[in-house]
Design a protein that fits this description.
heterodimer; A: 368 residues; six-stranded mixed sheet; elongated; disordered N terminus; B: 299 residues; mainly alpha; MetI-like fold; 13 helices
């Protein structure tokens, strides 16, 4: 059961109004190592705007440049010459991380092992020279906010993974940072705990209204937490948009494939206003002239063969609990993936009919 | 069937297994393999325990000149006491200086990549290859009567400045062979350390000094303590270097050598040996206790 992490929204608001975050022409090239002398371009020069109070998720596979982007924002990496990082109206490009006023939450928690929970949360406040009374009060607020009451004196190595990440979050928020940065904070947790903490972090970010950048390779996490998502590929942003835009109108085959599953329907020709595809024909008014169309597995419906647009033979079924995934051979190169209600039973070898609503189909500009 | 009933049916059987097998099994296993310890035990008895017991007993014997028991002489006679104190202070100074100098050096080397790093590392660790006698010789080359410093001061001031034949020379020599050990240990500890700890501290506003004090030193504390203790133990017992620099330097190993070889004063030699061994053992024991404090504490 997900607990409500936020008790008092107003008391936890940042002291200052949220700021915008802008990257201008920020690229990063690493010099060649002994093994390969060619310089490695980790990040192509990019522009990125994060609105005040917005949560932007950087999503992509390993090596896509998302962590490099986060490290440039934090000040742990310098962009290549010409790159600029702006926090509101301030150019912070030359400022080291300790002067940027950012909060960071790491994948491996990065809690100080020689300090207990309280001392970890208080660390940034102590560095800032707050009075002991102020520190005690602020630590108390943070402990309340992330539900760690009673664990204040506990050494951090005695905490569970979820508790450790709550301490890390409280420690980052205690200093009321201008920008909050997350580097795959849930990747080290097991599935159940990850879901729970994801809900908690989502509620917290929305109630605090703090400008945040969140790096993950988990698309479900990205869609749940991001006001907008930047999908990254090979050191550049492949698409930037709201979770809905990215999911329903992916800008490239890579994005479509990376966010959820997608079916690729090759158009063999048009006849009487219908598009011929493997296993049948689609009655669509749009997309004439397109060579490939796409649709999501959950947008394909199983129907009686007589009313079907496409027919195919069930190859395999995977029971997922809330639904089931069918792999249907329609004669195309790859089988169609169909999401069907979990109570219906389909047997491998069975011939079934499929229908796809026109609005569920989409084409992609760069599709080959 | 209810879980309780299932449990109650299973219990007697598992109890029987526990009583009938597992405890004696452990004992049998130990007895079965114990003969393998025999050579090590034999070696331990013949070459360590028996001579050491003999040494302890001998140390209680009378001093050749005064007839007072060896241990009492060491703790009351000024010559022996000053020898013990100067060895102790020298070893503490060497360990602290080595940890300070090589600690920073090891951290820097672990965290930075630069051309020629492996060459520099092999040069820095070169002294490990030298026996104490050669280290003593090197100190003389630097601070002896014909040493570099003497030549320089003769040219500059007309006087020969020397430090090789004193505790200062010994300090330099011991520091010379302690630094590589500390560098190696600190480098290994720093390489194992999680860099995100430093990054987290910096993100919270900590400057370099605060990161060093609050994060790096606590994280590599066990390595610093253990390597410091090994430097201390090595300096306490080192003989080759001080013997090369001259037998006038009053440290315990030279005192033992003198009592044993020059005066055949076995009781005093034995008493000094036992006390030297005891001090070193205690320092290593506490180092192990202290450095183990954070073991398993990584978050």
């Amino acid at each position: 059961m997900a607990t409500n992490i936020v008790r008092n929204e107003n008391s936890n608001r940042p002291a200052t109004a949220p700021i915008s975050l802008r990257l201008r022409h920020c690229g990063r090239t690493f010099p060649g190592t002994r093994g390969s002398h060619a310089p490695h371009v980790a990040l192509q020069p990019l522009d990125l705007d994060v609105e005040p109070g917005e949560t932007l998720v950087l999503l992509g596979p390993s090596g896509c440049g998302k962590t490099t982007t986060l490290r440039i924002i934090s000040g742990l990496e310098q962009p290549d010459i010409g790159g600029q990082v702006w926090f509101g109206e301030e150019d912070v490009t030359q400022l080291p991380i300790e002067k940027r006023d950012v909060g960071m939450v790491f994948q491996n928690y990065a809690l100080f092992p020689n300090m207990n929970v309280e001392a970890n949360i208080a660390y940034g406040l102590r560095i800032r020279g707050l009075s002991p009374d102020d520190i005690r009060r602020r630590v108390g607020e943070m402990v309340d906010m992330v539900h760690l009451n009673g664990l204040e004196r506990r050494p951090v190595h005695e905490l569970s993974g979820g508790q450790k990440q709550r301490v890390a979050l409280a420690r980052a928020l205690a200093v009321r940072p201008r920008v909050l940065l997350f580097d795959e904070p849930l990747a080290a947790l097991d599935a159940k705990l990850r879901d729970r903490l994801r809900v908690d972090i989502g509620q917290l970010l929305r109630s605090l209204g703090i400008t945040s950048v969140y790096v993950t390779h988990d698309q479900a996490e990205a869609m749940a937490l991001g006001d907008r998502i930047a999908v990254m590929e090979n050191g550049r942003i492949a698409q930037l948009g709201t979770p809905r835009e990215i999911y329903h109108h992916p800008g490239s085959a890579f994005v479509a494939d990376f966010i959820g599953s997608v079916n690729r329907l090759e158009i063999k020709g048009a006849e009487e206003g219908q598009l011929m595809v493997a296993g049948g024909r689609l009655s669509v008014a749009r997309y004439h002239g397109a060579s490939v169309l796409y649709c999501r597995p959950e947008d394909i419906e199983v129907c009686p063969v007589t009313q079907a647009a496409i027919t195919g033979r069930v190859l395999q079924t995977f029971f997922l609990g809330q639904s089931q995934r069918l792999f249907v051979d329609t004669g195309a190169e790859t089988p169609l993936q169909v999401e069907s209600p979990s109570r219906e039973q389909w047997l491998p070898g069975q011939t079934i009919g499929l229908s796809i609503a026109e609005e569920a189909l989409f084409s992609i500009a760069d599709a080959q | 069937m209810s879980p309780d009933r299932r449990e109650s049916r299973r219990q007697p059987r598992s109890g029987a297994v526990f009583e009938g097998r597992s405890v004696p099994k452990g004992r049998r296993r130990l007895r079965g393999w114990s003969w393998m310890l025999a050579p090590a035990l034999g070696f331990f008895l013949a070459f360590w325990l028996l001579p050491f017991v003999r040494l302890i007993v001998m140390g209680a014997g009378p001093d050749n000149n005064t007839g007072i028991a060896g241990y009492w002489m060491v703790l009351t006679h000024e010559q022996y006491l000053s020898s013990l104190m100067s060895t102790l202070l020298l070893s503490i100074a060497v360990s602290v200086s080595a940890v300070l100098i090589a600690g920073f050096c090891g951290y820097f080397l672990a965290r930075h990549q630069f051309p020629g790093k492996s060459w520099l590392l092999s040069m820095l660790t070169f002294p490990l290859a030298f026996p104490g006698v050669v280290v003593g010789f090197l100190v003389i080359m630097l601070g002896g009567r014909q040493g570099a410093l003497a030549q320089l001061s003769l040219w500059a001031t007309g006087e020969r400045w020397t430090f090789a034949y004193s505790l200062t020379g010994l300090f330099v020599g011991y520091l010379y062979f302690s630094i590589p050990r500390v560098i190696m240990t600190v480098m290994a500890a720093c390489e194992k350390m999680d860099t995100s700890l430093e990054e987290a501290a910096r993100s919270l506003g900590a400057n370099t000094r605060q990161v060093v004090v609050d994060v790096i030193i606590p994280a590599i504390r066990p390595a610093l303590i253990s390597t410091g203790a090994i430097c201390f133990a090595t300096s306490m017992g080192a003989f080759g270097t001080v013997f090369t620099l001259g037998t006038r330097i009053n440290v315990v190993p030279i005192a033992i050598y003198g009592e044993f070889t020059n005066y055949a004063n076995f009781a005093m030699a034995a008493a000094l040996s036992v006390i030297l061994g005891l001090v070193t053992w205690i320092s290593l024991f506490f180092a192990r206790r202290l450095s183990g404090e954070y073991v398993g504490g990584g978050a």
